[in-house]
Every structure is written in structure tokens, then in C-alpha cells.
Amino acid sequence: MGLKRTDEFRQDAERIALTSGLTRKQVADDLGVGMSTLNKWITGHRDTNMVSKEDLDLAQENDRLRRENRLLKEEREILKRPPSSLRA
């Protein structure tokens, strides 16, 4: 039988999985729990208000900034190329 986790640990794991911007696989690996276990915890508490509005807002802003950063890096790489490589 597996290790019994506390309710506090489960809630923290759910919050991290929903707000960190990491994949659930990464969170599960980092916390040493199975992917299916983490998904079960999240699904079981989907209707509860365990994540504050502020946490959700921060997670959404974090996701937006990551997308923007990725786009800017791609644009910078295009601009770094020599002019001859830009011609098709």
C-alpha cells in the first residue's frame, strides 16, 4: 500500500498543479506522487474553492507572460539571422 498523504499535502499539490504553470507530470514527479493520483485529487476537488481568485489571476498572467516571452525570443532569433538567410 502507498504512502498516506495528509490533506494539507494534497491541497498544496492541487494548488501547485493548477497555478504553477508546470505540467501535471512535472508537479507529480517533483512531489513524488503518481500522475493518476494527482489527477484524482484535482478531479475530486474540482468544485471546491481551494484556489483563490488572486492565485488564478497570477497563474493566468504568468501564462500570458510565458507566451509573450516565447514569442519575443523567436522574433529575436529571426532578427539575429544574417540577411542572406532571410530570403526565401
TrEMBL record:
<dbReference type="GO" id="GO:0003677">
    <property type="term" value="F:DNA binding"/>
</dbReference>
<protein>
    <submittedName>
        <fullName>Transposase</fullName>
    </submittedName>
</protein>
<dbReference type="InterPro" id="IPR009057">
    <property type="entry name" value="Homeodomain-like_sf"/>
</dbReference>
<dbReference type="InterPro" id="IPR002514">
    <property type="entry name" value="Transposase_8"/>
</dbReference>
<dbReference type="Pfam" id="PF01527">
    <property type="entry name" value="HTH_Tnp_1"/>
</dbReference>
<dbReference type="GO" id="GO:0006313">
    <property type="term" value="P:DNA transposition"/>
</dbReference>
<dbReference type="GO" id="GO:0004803">
    <property type="term" value="F:transposase activity"/>
</dbReference>
